[in-house]
Amino acid sequence: MGKTLENIFNWIRKHTPLWLHWKMGPVVAKGVYLFRMHILGNKDAPKVLSASDTLDLIVKDNLSVIRFGDGEMTIMEGDNLGFQKTNPELAKRLKEIIQVDLPGLLICVPDFFGKLEGLVHFAYTFALHHQFRYRRKWLVLLSQNRVYGETGMTRPYLGYDENARKHSGKIFRKIFLLWKGKEVVLIEGSKSRLGVGNDLFKDAVSVNRILCPPENAFDRYNEILAEALKTGKDKLILLSLGPTAKLLGYDLFINGYRVIDIGHVDMEYEMYLRKEPAQTKVKYKYFNEISERNPEECGEPEYLSQIIAKIL
Question: Is the Cβ–Cβ distance between 222 and 204 less than 8 Å?
């Protein structure tokens, strides 16, 4: 039934003009969502923890974490992202890793599958559209016999309404516990500069950085992995490198490292500190979602002193 409906909608999408997609798409997506939730009972939904429960579990059990989101689905479907072109090998490995079930490793996925509550309009409509277009593809990859973490654990602010945002500070405090008292090695895009200009890593013992290409990092994957493997296993490795971070996280995990994929957290924290209702430009920082891809160079001494390697 699901495949038949998908074929029908794909045919309609192909044979109708774009302006009609924009007008009718949200209406149809909401109708399908309400039918699934209230008529079908949402019985096929995977089990996804809340962001708060996800963070509690990670801290309690010292888990490694790999997060999958709409960007990874885009790559798995053979389409490009603004900062990462598609690649068959990258797509293949993403599909393999999302299905891995290993002790000590938590796979996170978006909580698009249940009730869409507490969201601002743009986040609600995005989630509706994503569910409508990709839900069946997610379900093929996920199991109803396991529990997933919530990918949005690193994004507790921008997509939520005022009432939900009252809890953002509590979520960020839980995020800080991930690296409290830890020696951190951060593997990030060279223009991301997580924690620069804010206190994101104030509770870490130390932070060192391995800088990677800000775009198409997968092209240099073997070099990035080789450099990461030079890191001592007593260090906590944090990753912010788009879809490439998923492969890197898995390959480091199976080599005995603890890794946590924290993409988007710095951008969300910056907006939370500023109480901004939407993403805005921040000095030194690359934000793909608002096409801010050429930020100023950063010459801050503390940041420069943290860089231990560059693969650019």
Answer: no
DSSP per-residue letters across 117-155: -SB-HHHHHHHHHHHHHHHHHHHHH--TTSEEEEGGGG-
For residue 16, the model assigns a pLDDT of 63
Closest CA to 156 of 144, 146, 166, 145: 166
Distance between CA atoms of residues 66 and 262, nearest Å: 9
* Rounded-to-integer distance, Cα 60 and Cα 1, Å: 41
Taking residue 297's Cβ as centre, other Cβ atoms within 10 Å add up to 7
Number of CB atoms found within 10 A of residue 100's CB: 12
Per-residue model confidence as pLDDT tens digits over 226-281: 999 999 999 999 999 999 999 999 999 999 999 999 999 999 999 999 999 999 99
Q: Which residues of the chain carry a pLDDT beneath 50? A: 1, 22
Pairwise CA distance, residues 198 & 140, whole Å: 40
Please identify which residue in the block is written with the tokens 């801290």: 59
Domain ranges of the chain: 2-38, 47-310
User: Which residue from 185, 188, 197, 189 is spatially nearest to 299, judged by alpha carbons?
Assistant: 197
Separation of alpha carbons 143 and 113, rounded Å: 13
Sign for the CA dihedral angle at 272, 274, 275, 281 comes to: negative
Give residue 184's pLDDT: 98
Half-sphere exposure of residue 269, counting CA atoms within 13 Å on the CB side?
A: 24
Q: Say if residue 162 is exposed, middle or buried (CB neighbours under 10 Å; 0-12, 13-18, 19+).
A: exposed
Which pLDDT does position 161 carry in this prediction? 96
Tokens of 292: 């801010």
CA 291 to chain centre: 17
Determine how many CB atoms are found less than 10 A away from the CB of residue 295: 17
pLDDT at 15: 61
Contact 245, 261 (CB under 8 A): yes
Taking the C-alpha atoms of residue 270 and residue 195, their distance in angstroms, rounded to an integer, is: 9
